[in-house]
Amino acid sequence: MKLLFERSRKGRQCCILPPCDVETAAFDESLLRKAPLHLPEISEVDLGRHYTELAKQTHGVNDGFYPLGSCTMKYNPRIDEEAAALPGFTGIHPLQEPESVQGAMEVLYETEQLLKEITGMDAMTFQPAAGAHGEYTGLLLIRSYHLHNGNKERNKIIVPDSAHGTNPASASMAGFEVISVKSDENGGVDLDALRAAVGPDTAGLMLTNPNTVGLFDPNILKITEIVHQAGGLCYYDGANLNAVMGHVRPGDLGFDCVHLNLHKTFAAPHGGGGPGSGPVGCKEFLTQFMPAPLVKKEEDHFEFFVPENSMGRVKSFYGNFLVVVKALTYIRTLGKEGIPEASAGAVLNANYLMKKLSGVYDMAFDTLCMHEFVMTLQRQAHEKGVTAMDVAKRLLDFGIHPPTMYFPLIVHEALMVEPTETESPETLDEAAGIFLKIMEEADTDPESLHQAPHSCPIGRPDEVTAARKPVLRYQF
Amino acid sequence: MSVIPAELKYSKTHEWVKEEDGLFVIGLTDYAQSELGDIVFINLPEEGDEVSVGEAFSDVESVKAVSDVYSPVSGVVAEINEELQDNPALVNEDPYGAWLIKVRDVTEQEELLDAAGYEKVVAEEEA
């Protein structure tokens, strides 16, 4: 399809501006551009058609099943959008006097109370813009704590080899050295490897539980104890909280700080570049280092405050506020019964689909899973030359978004499937049928699988050339 | 089946090692490059940098993932393969020709495997 710049015609435009009815002021000549800006000139109808055409070529949760493992692509209820679109929320400015935005402050306060209850933490900030930013903020908390106690030699963060790639990256960004520990044969943390890794230089451990292979680590209490005994802190990556919310609280498992992804677990939309929200919670002893400002309640009045040894701001103002409104609406809509029910549904759906595919597809771990499961196509790759990529691409022909591919790295030819709780049994049955049909095709017509997808506008983009010789902007 | 030349030594983490004119030449094995897939970028150390046994000295980005490359020896980087900066695909095309670094003043080396020993490691990973 044509790009906006290719549709552009000189002088064509979208809007007719009213005549200027105020005095104009001239800029100093030195401040003016020498060359005109490269902006596409296009009519409103052409612009509308361009984006509609783009939208038709994408696949979102509203288009169909989206079992993208580790991403929790659940349906985002309309009511969340309605609440976030209320003019009282969209029409305010972060620099307004607190007295004039008490309602918005109440949203932050109220959401904090609910998320504290869900995570077992004592305070929460909504500044981080998304998950990895939350990780970074949580790590700065750990760093502040050790520096405050005069332990600057505690500069190593332990990360299991099954962790999300963002964990080691965030730890490096926060100035730590990363120590990787191996997983055991069940996909959990190898306790002996962990014991060998901790020491007087341990700042903390970053852990996702359930982990990236969709399994709840049964040794979790032992793991946090080993780290605490060595003087380190435990960081809970809330990426997979969707499997356990309302059932288990990270705070009760021995974790000292945590980040959540409101745009995953709490049903705010994501994909396509955001905005996300990655609130960070911590235990009482870390609250003094929290980013500022936080909101507190004095009788029936809300005030901003700065904790004693605050690290300052990690983002302008209060984070992506409207995402918090969506999360609050979601939690209040589901309520005390609905939140654990959502998690139970996520786990049930994952196990249901896993069971339907077992036997034809090899599971990386032969056990009940949590909210997602990992299959390995290694056998098919060896025997039939059919890879995880081939299966993923063929799914597109049936209107299913592929699962996460080639992750986690500890599983070869991995396909990671997360159906989420918002899919019906009918959708799961239909999807299972398609997965099984594709494996039949692997026997009858493998060549067609290598060529898939057959129905998409773009089949197999040349990722290698894109990465080696990227074209990052329109060549005028 | 991946190619494992008999005259080279290997690490369990899929690097090959060759001694040549007093230098240790290090590269990625055929198995490693085939598991990584098409390599799009290789981040190499600089001449004069120190490398240590078991520690990452380079990272390799393929279309699938970014992976560390571990040093089987401790020493000082004498030379890096500049050609890989422009054409990382050489590692895919000719893994035993496209070396990554050459190391001098080697003080320590890990227990390296011969071709038969490394073949077992690969067979285990593939099982």
Description:
The complex is a heterodimer of chains A (476) and B (127). By secondary structure, chain A is α/β, with parallel strands linked by helices. Chain A folds into two domains: 78-334, Aspartate Aminotransferase, domain 2 (3-Layer(aba) Sandwich); 337-467, Aspartate Aminotransferase, domain 1 (Alpha-Beta Complex), CATH 3.90.1150. In chain A, 37% of the residues lie in helices and 11% in strands. Chain A is built from 15 helices and 13 strands. Chain A has helices spanning 4-7, 44-56, 78-84, 87-90, 102-119, 131-148, 166-173, 191-197, 220-229, 321-357, 378-384, 388-397, 425-444, 446-451, 463-468, and strands at residues 123-125, 156-160, 177-181, 202-208, 233-237, 257-259, 280-282, 294-298, 301-305, 362-363, 373-376, 404-405, 414-417. In chain A, strands 1-7-6-5-4-2-3 form a seven-stranded mixed beta sheet, sandwiched between helices. A four-stranded antiparallel beta sheet of chain A has the order 10-11-13-12, covered by helices on one side. In chain A, β4 (202-208), α9 and β5 form a beta-alpha-beta unit. Chain A is globular and about 75 Å long. Chain B has 127 residues and is of the alpha+beta class. Chain B has a single domain, classed as OB fold (Dihydrolipoamide Acetyltransferase, E2P), CATH 2.40.50. Chain B is 21% helix and 39% strand. Chain B contains four helices and nine strands. In chain B, a hairpin with a 2-residue loop joins β2 (15-20) and β3 (23-28). Chain B is globular. The A-B interface holds A 165, 378, 382, 406-407, 409, 412, 463-464, 467-468 and B 35, 38, 40-41, 61, 63-67, 88-89, 126.
